[in-house]
Design goal:
UDP-N-acetylmuramoyl-L-alanine:D-glutamate ligase; 11 helices; nine-stranded mixed sheet
């Protein structure tokens, strides 16, 4: 059984080979992309086991997604092949000034029909960590119910729960999202949120007030992603900051947040200190933006050892 379990939708991503409006683009690269499966891949590359629960269409894209995740070492035994609903598709549009826009074709997708009945209680019993995002409950009422059922199963099995709000305003309005995401944060042990989305959800400004709001909601640990300023963590016992890992040039910003989550959670699975776990998170997030694609830049532990001594304040020692 995997150490980390996650659930959510993975789509087929068509990424244009040139910048500009999609009306002028005629060549794309195809990839599998989804926040939860990105985290599963990142954790697996860092030496741990991960399983992904979902539905995909019983179509060529669905088979491609399963083959891609299997190839990365992610357990997909809990994924249902849906003969009645398609695998979702999304496109990325890149502006000449670096702006990235995502266009979804996911309404009525196979993953949006994920239900609590798709979750096997036995699958949770030997895991250590359940990782959730705020994307899945935005897909449908059934998906939302599945997320809450996963929390119930995780609590029954004694798992730690991590949660990234991953606010997606193209999927639901803030007024609808806010109470759900706050509630899910209150039911989680570790909350990992970007500063801007966290401020919208909790109605405060700045990483320190935001972390306090997350803890007041009920989480044990609040991790605030600060982009080029690194990361901030607060718990009842401590508060700490780590700087960002320097990146010479950002090639593709997408996937950095999921990579950060994967690094932090892999550090937690290794039994590392929170400081070292955060430093692993910022390193994975930094490497993610140096190449095109969501997960293509995520490192394995040999690469982590190479880059570790170059991090700000690094000593080169990761023999833990």
């Amino acid at each position: 059984m995997p150490e980390l379990i996650t659930l959510g939708e993975t789509m087929i991503l068509f990424s244009p080979e040139m910048n500009g409006p999609l009306r002028y683009v005629d060549r794309y690269r195809r990839r599998a992309a989804g926040a939860e499966s990105n985290v599963a891949i990142g954790v697996t590359r860092l030496g741990h086991t991960a399983g992904w629960i979902s539905r995909v269409g019983d179509d060529e894209f669905g088979h491609y997604i399963l083959a891609s995740l299997r190839g990365e070492g992610v357990d997909v035994s809990q994924v249902q092949m849906d003969p009645d609903h398609p695998t979702a598709v999304m496109f990325r549009q890149r502006g000449l000034m670096g702006h990235v826009e995502v266009i979804y074709y996911r309404h009525g997708s196979a993953a949006s029909h994920l239900t609590p009945d798709d979750l096997d209680p036995d699958y949770f019993r030997d895991a250590q960590l359940l990782h959730l995002t705020g994307i899945t409950p935005a897909l449908s009422a059934d998906c939302r119910a599945a997320v809450y059922r996963a929390i119930e199963l995780a609590r029954e099995a004694g798992l730690t729960i991590s949660f990234d709000p991953n606010l997606r305003l193209k999927l639901w309005p803030l007024a609808e999202a806010r109470p759900v995401l706050r509630d899910l944060a209150s039911r989680s042990d570790i909350v990992l949120t970007g500063l801007e989305e966290g401020e919208k959800i909790f109605g405060c400004q700045g990483e320190e007030p935001l972390a306090a709001a997350v803890l007041n909601a009920g989480a044990r640990v609040a991790v605030i992603k600060l982009g080029t300023r690194g990361a901030y963590l607060r718990s009842a016992e401590s508060a700490l900051r780590v700087p960002a890992y320097p990146v010479p040039r950002v090639v593709d910003p997408v996937g950095a947040g999921d990579g950060f989550d994967a690094g932090v959670l892999a550090g937690w699975l290794k039994g590392w200190s929170w400081r070292d776990s955060l430093q692993l998170g910022v390193l994975v997030g930094a490497l993610a933006v140096t190449v095109p694609g969501d997960v293509e830049g995520y490192p394995d532990m040999n690469q982590v050892r190479f880059y570790w001594e170059q991090r700000p304040g690094g000593s080169g020692d990761v023999s833990r």
